[in-house]
Write a structure and sequence with these properties.
alpha/beta, Guanylate Kinase phosphate binding domain, 2 domains, four-stranded mixed beta sheet, single chain
C-alpha cells in the first residue's frame, strides 16, 4: 500500500491518479463528510457521507483510522486497504500508518511551498479565503517537528505530477522487494 500525505494541494491526489493511470495502482477511497468539489464523484474520489453516517461507522468499527481535518471527518475503512493501492491521507492518518509494522505499507510525504500550494488551490477553483485558511492551518499542522517518520519525502514542488508518481512507484517497488 502506497500511503501519500502532504499539505493541501501538495499533489498527493493528482499523484494517486497518475499512479492509477500509468501503473494500475488503484486508489483506496477514503470516506469524508466534506462537500464535493466540482468534478468530484462519490465513490471515485471519496465516499461522501453525512456527519451522522460517519459517526455511526465509527461506532461500528469500520475505520482503521479517522480524523477531523478542516472541520470535516476523514477516514480510511478496513475494506479499502489492500496491496497495490494508494491511499491519500492527512497527517494524523499518516501517523497511524507510519507506525505500522506491515512491510507492505510504504509511507510518502509530498513537500511543496505554501505559495505553490495556494496557487494550485486557486487554479483548481477553490475559494480564495478558504485557500488562505487552509494554508494557515497547514502551516501549524505540517510544521517540521510534527511530521512523523515516513519512508520517503518527495519534493513535489520542482517535479511534474508524472515525475512524482514515477518516483513514488519506483521507491515503492524497491521497498516491497526487501
Amino acid at each position: 500500500m502506497i500511503v501519500l500525505s502532504g499539505a493541501s494541494a501538495s499533489g498527493k491526489t493528482e499523484a494517486a491518479k497518475m499512479l492509477m493511470a500509468k501503473y494500475g495502482i488503484a486508489r483506496a477511497i477514503t470516506t469524508t463528510t466534506r462537500q464535493k468539489r466540482n468534478r468530484e464523484v462519490d465513490g471515485r474520489d471519496y465516499f461522501f457521507v453525512s456527519k451522522e453516517k460517519f459517526e455511526q461507522m465509527i461506532k461500528e468499527g469500520a475505520f482503521i483510522e479517522h480524523t477531523i481535518y478542516n472541520g470535516n471527518y476523514y477516514g480510511s475503512t478496513k475494506n479499502q486497504i489492500a496491496d497495490n493501492r494508494s491511499l491519500v491521507i492527512d497527517l494524523e492518518g499518516l501517523k497511524t500508518y507510519s507506525q505500522s509494522k506491515d512491510k507492505r505499507i510504504v509511507t510518502f510525504f509530498l513537500s511543496s511551498s505554501e505559495e505553490l500550494c495556494f496557487k494550485r488551490m486557486i487554479d483548481r477553483g477553490d475559494d480564495e479565503e478558504e485557500a488562505k485558511r487552509r494554508i494557515d492551518n497547514d502551516r501549524k499542522i505540517f510544521a517540521t517537528n510534527c511530521i512523523p517518520k515516513v519512508d520517503y519525502i518527495i519534493d513535489s514542488e520542482h517535479k511534474t505530477i508524472e515525475e512524482v508518481a514515477d518516483e513514488v512507484y519506483a521507491l515503492y517497488m524497491e521497498h516491497i522487494k526487501h
